Amino acid sequence: MADPSETTQVSREPSEQAQLVEAVQALSTQVTSLQDELHALRTEARALPDGEADRHGWDEGASTVVREGPAWIRSVDSPRARGIAVPWLLLEILFLVAVAVLCAVAGLDAPVIAGVMVAAWLLVAVGEWLLSRAERERYALVYGTDVPPPAAVADDRSWFATNGDDTLLDLPSAERPPARLPPPE
Prior knowledge:
The protein is 50% helix and 0% strand. The protein is mainly α. It has a domain at 109-144. The longest helix has 34 residues, at 110-143. 0% of the residues are buried. The mean pLDDT is 76.
């Protein structure tokens, strides 16, 4: 028996093929006209409309919402660029180690090395003091003035006068003398 795929023949009628050719030609004509329109739009000086002129229907009723922050936020200066973080402790340690190595290479005696190391340490301490002073001055410029000293509180010795009974917790509260507040100023 013969294989069914060999014996099956598909025949198209000439009218179907003609309809297909006509549809492809019509499609080709439409594609050509669309390409011509696209080319014309691309060559125009102002091809695209403004953003507001071509709004869609869903935007017609909506109003533009502008959210502004409080006025004080706009009055605050923007932060300045942060400087490079310098590892001062590491630099100080490296300086002291370098001084010690140079003293040892120079062949100095132990008391002289100790004196040079003390001088180097004093130099580092003065440098740190100057840096901290500069930081305090910068903060004073940024925040106004230095922190005001606390107001002097008058000495009220009545707070410290105890008769020994005030600290006994095993006495009933009726037997303990009441706590006294300082006199008003």
